[in-house]
Amino acid sequence: MRIVRDYTYLEDRDRGASVAIGNFDGVHLGHRTVIDIARKAGEACGAPLGILTFNPHPREFFSPGQTPFRLMSPEARAHRLEKIGVDTLYELNFNAALSALSPETFTRNVIHEGLGLRHVVVGADFCFGKGRAGNATDLVRFGEEMGFGVTIVELVKGGNGEVSSTAIRAALSDGRPRDAAAMLGHWHRIEGEVIGGEQRGRTLGYPTANMSIEGLHQPRFGVYAVLVDVLTGPHAGNYHGAASLGLRPMFNGEQPNLETFIFDFSGDLYGAQLSVALVEYLRPEETFDSLDAFIARMDDDCARARRVLEAG
């Protein structure tokens, strides 16, 4: 998958795609519907499949310092989009100049002249341009004037209502990763580099791979059964494990992170890229009267996680 970040300077091979436009946070089932329609439209006119999105997220640009809400880092989003067959990711830099474009100017300068898109697919609630003044109906009109096709997709409904990033965040905040996965169409994953920690787990018999969750929506703190994909390095592969997500109250942690113990694993993962899928919430964070009690609880956590993951 090719990634394009500047709509004013691009190669001819990066023009003329059929794209879905949106932020695609989580790449959930609603997003997949929009993307699949863009794929079919591209097949009909011989155009590659593209995604047009933005980084930083417009909410982050207009309201810096707010509580982190992203389900995915840009890197994790790109990884997921590549997995589902996207040819080109137009990940445009969202800045003051781009945000100041009127709906018509954005359409002409970015969609038509800049990227030369042949077909565009958006959700029914799509808004764009300065002040979010443009809507999906406006885009259809501009497409007719400028010569590209537009498809508007109605919002996707799940078993419990609308499938949305907001509903997925709520499920994760409640400790319901399986409900989140039902809306995502895949497990919710936290991806990133393994960073150095205090190495306390090694002395307790539970060495962990530590990852930052900075900038991401925080699922309910506690212990989870997890699936682990080691994406890079000599230990690349798929594993089972148990993970603690949160502040580590037993040791007075100050910054929330994700600490994953991988079952039946031996090796150095520092610097490797990991993708950790939250499968089932086992318990909240706790403090214990002694390290022995803490270790006994971790033994129990790992036994439960193994049973959960073996059951599927």
Written overview of the protein:
This protein is α/β, with parallel strands linked by helices and 312 residues long. The chain has two domains: 2-158, HUPs (Rossmann fold), CATH 3.40.50; 188-311, Elongation Factor Tu (Ef-tu), domain 3. It is 33% helix and 27% strand. It is built from ten helices and 16 strands. The strands form four sheets. A six-stranded parallel β-sheet has the order 1-4-3-2-5-8, with helices on both faces. A six-stranded antiparallel β-sheet has the order 11-16-13-14-15-12. The chain has a two-stranded antiparallel sheet with strand order 6-7. Helix 5 packs across helix 6 (136-146) and helix 7 packs antiparallel against helix 8. The longest helix has 21 residues, at 291-311. The radius of gyration is 22 Å and the shape is elongated. The model has no long low-confidence stretch (mean pLDDT 93).
Q: What is the typical, i.e. mean, pLDDT?
A: 93
Number of strands: 16
Which strand order does the major sheet show? 1-4-3-2-5-8
Whole-number total of structural domains: 2
What proportion strand?
A: 25-35%
Rg calculated over all Cα atoms: 22 Å
Overall shape: it is elongated
Helix-strand category: alpha/beta
The biggest beta sheet reads: 6 strands, parallel
Reading the helices and strands in chain order gives EEHEHHEHHEEEHEEEHHEHEEEEEH
Outline the low-pLDDT stretches.
none
Helix content: 25-40%
What is the CATH third-level topology name of the largest domain? Rossmann fold
Q: Helical element count?
A: 10
So, the CATH homologous superfamily of the largest domain?
Answer: HUPs
Task: Give the N-to-C terminal Cα separation.
Answer: 31 Å
CATH top level label of the largest domain: Alpha Beta
CATH architectural arrangement of the largest domain: 3-Layer(aba) Sandwich
